[in-house]
Amino acid sequence: MSGMNLISTAFLAADGEAYSRLFGLDMQLLVDAIIPAISIFVLFVFLSKLLFNPVRELLEKRQAKITEDLDAAEKAKEDTIHIKEEYEGKLRNVQKEAEGILSESRKKALAQEKEIVDEAKAEAHRIRVRADKDIELEKNKVKDEVKQEMISIASAMAGKIIETSISKEQQSDLIEETLKEMGDSTWQS
Among residues 1, 9, 30, 126, which is most buried (max CB within 10 A)? Predict the structure, then answer.
């Protein structure tokens, strides 16, 4: 076998003839191949039970936790959007409400202004009417005073006339003189 390649081996056949082959399928080769395969399979099953299943469960739990966290984040995002929309709606309502309050305040202020102006006009009218009455009373009082004075002057004249028995011409002159003393303005008011 010295001349043969190391890879190939020489076998003897049943009739004694030697032949060489590169790869031979015999029972020993099958046993040598099946035992490591069974060992690998047993080792795989053992390791899968011992290592792969706990790792797989850990990964599944982690995946479930991540899914749960993503769902919670999505729900929180939806809640945030909902709260934001609600806040914006309330903000719009507050602005509308503020505009309504300002409008109502303006209306009340205008109504109050009109009421104050109307009261001022009414008060001015009452003052004017009272002033007119006072003026009328004062005129009547002055007229009464003038009448009283005329009566006193007339009685004084009558006294003088009686004392001096004067003529009609003198009486006319005396009345005219008295009237001039009183003045024309007294009779015009």
Answer: 9
**What is the residue-wise DSSP string for 90-156?**
HHHHHHHHHHHHHHHHHHHHHHHHHHHHHHHHHHHHHHHHHHHHHHHHHHHHHHHHHHHHHHHHHHH
> Are the beta carbons of 159 and 174 closer than 8 angstroms?
no
Q: What's the pLDDT at 20?
A: 58
Long-range contacts, 167-175 (Cβ 8 Å, 24+)? none
Q: What is the pTM of this model?
A: 0.35
For tokens 């009272």, the residue is 130
* DSSP string of 49-88, one letter each residue: IIIIHHHHHHHHHHHHHHHHHHHHHHHHHHHHHHHHHHHH
Predicted pLDDT at 17: 56
Residues in the chain predicted with pLDDT less than 50, given as ranges, are 1-10
> Can you give the pLDDT at residue 14?
54
CA dihedral 118, 122, 127, 132 (to 10 degrees): 130
Is the sign of the CA dihedral 12, 16, 18, 24 positive or negative?
A: negative
By the 8 A CB rule, do 59 and 48 touch? Answer: no
Greatest alpha-carbon pair distance for the chain in Å reads 213
pLDDT at position 127 is 93
Copy the structure tokens of residue 141. Answer: 């009082």
